[in-house]
């Protein structure tokens, strides 16, 4: 395949190579129409920046570090796809690290990333991370940093997240509108940002419909493979057991589905089940799983864009902020009672 360069784009459009270079970098000095023509031409010629050549021109490594709890988690694999797509188009390599939900490994990952001279870092916190001193120290060294999904209010950094509150509110509201009144919430460690936000959305929906928040219906887990069964047993043996389950992660959703079926509970006749997941097989489960879908790829793309803008210190780089990206509620069989006229639907939150 023929490799095209900036010179080819300049020749095609009859403009200077410096104008092409600045347009590809998104420089504010280049007018929008010229940028559009350059980007269209680059796409047509399948132009791709050469990260090695770019790094030789200056001290930058043209590499960004990405630290995630687990690549095997479908949400994070999708987010990485989004990150890599943006990084590739803007001439950056991506170096991926896994914390494996360990605070110590996360700290080690940060040091490894620095030793590899990355230009900036994207990170989603491990489930053990409640102390973010290691990231504050990173900022003290002026290393560009953007957090995504699992974030911390203690850091003055741009943070890209799903609308966890809105998604949890919609899931809980849907269960209530389906006639459920005792809704259990299975979630993860209480100090994580996603846990707090989803719990808040769950509570707000209960309050809206005049249902009392009952702490005995909330269970906090880790990421162990066999913990969901005992949670279900405890809840179903309450004097007033739940008639629905709202889970806050992929693993909990699948574990809860399996545990309910093993205990001969019919879904949704005995209990309804809805997840907050990114499962690509939710519609293939039996019954198909109602779920709040997180925009993982878009979160990765926005996080990468914001980090690279920060690295390149653009004149009009956006200020530090928390960017919330909408979720979607998809209703399937696991919350649809027989006789209900409720077709498969998608609602934006």
UniProtKB/TrEMBL annotation:
<dbReference type="Pfam" id="PF00356">
    <property type="entry name" value="LacI"/>
</dbReference>
<dbReference type="Pfam" id="PF13377">
    <property type="entry name" value="Peripla_BP_3"/>
</dbReference>
<feature type="domain" description="HTH lacI-type">
    <location>
        <begin position="4"/>
        <end position="58"/>
    </location>
</feature>
<dbReference type="GO" id="GO:0003700">
    <property type="term" value="F:DNA-binding transcription factor activity"/>
</dbReference>
<dbReference type="InterPro" id="IPR046335">
    <property type="entry name" value="LacI/GalR-like_sensor"/>
</dbReference>
<keyword id="KW-0805">Transcription regulation</keyword>
<dbReference type="InterPro" id="IPR010982">
    <property type="entry name" value="Lambda_DNA-bd_dom_sf"/>
</dbReference>
<keyword id="KW-0804">Transcription</keyword>
<dbReference type="GO" id="GO:0000976">
    <property type="term" value="F:transcription cis-regulatory region binding"/>
</dbReference>
<protein>
    <submittedName>
        <fullName>LacI family DNA-binding transcriptional regulator</fullName>
    </submittedName>
</protein>
<dbReference type="InterPro" id="IPR000843">
    <property type="entry name" value="HTH_LacI"/>
</dbReference>
<dbReference type="InterPro" id="IPR028082">
    <property type="entry name" value="Peripla_BP_I"/>
</dbReference>
<keyword id="KW-0238">DNA-binding</keyword>
């Amino acid at each position: 395949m023929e490799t095209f360069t900036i010179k080819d784009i300049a020749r095609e459009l009859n403009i200077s190579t410096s104008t092409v270079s600045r347009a590809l970098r998104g420089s504010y000095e280049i007018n929008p129409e010229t940028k559009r023509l350059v980007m269209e031409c680059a796409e047509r010629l399948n132009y791709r920046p050469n990260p090695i050549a770019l790094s030789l021109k200056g001290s930058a490594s043209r590499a960004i570090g990405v630290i995630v709890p687990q690549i095997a988690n479908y949400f994070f694999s999708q987010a990485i796809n989004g990150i890599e797509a943006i990084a590739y188009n803007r001439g950056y390599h991506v170096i991926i690290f896994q914390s494996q939900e360990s605070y110590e490994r996360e700290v080690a990952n940060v040091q490894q990333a620095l030793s590899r001279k990355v230009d900036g870092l994207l990170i989603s916190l491990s489930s053990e991370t409640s102390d973010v001193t290691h990231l504050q120290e990173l900022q003290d060294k002026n290393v560009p940093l953007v957090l995504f999904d699992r974030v911390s209010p203690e850091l003055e950094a741009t943070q890209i997240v799903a609308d966890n509150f809105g998604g949890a509110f919609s899931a809980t509201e849907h269960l209530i509108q389906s006639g459920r009144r005792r809704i259990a919430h299975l979630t993860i460690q209480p100090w994580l940002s996603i846990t707090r936000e989803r719990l808040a959305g769950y509570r707000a929906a209960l309050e809206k419909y005049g249902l009392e928040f009952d702490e005995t219906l909330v269970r906090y887990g880790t990421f162990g493979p066999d913990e969901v069964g005992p949670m279900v047993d405890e809840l179903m043996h309450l004097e007033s057991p739940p008639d629905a389950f709202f889970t806050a992660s992929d693993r909990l959703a699948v574990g809860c589905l399996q545990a309910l079926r093993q205990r001969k509970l019919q879904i949704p006749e005995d209990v309804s089940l809805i997840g907050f997941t990114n499962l690509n097989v939710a519609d293939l489960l039996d019954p198909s799983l109602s779920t709040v879908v997180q925009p993982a790829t878009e979160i990765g793309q926005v996080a990468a864009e914001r980090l690279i803008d920060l690295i390149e210190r653009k004149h009009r780089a956006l200020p530090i902020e928390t960017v919330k990206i909408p979720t979607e509620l998809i209703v399937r069989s696991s919350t649809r009672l027989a006789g209900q006229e409720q077709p498969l639907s998608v609602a934006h939150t």
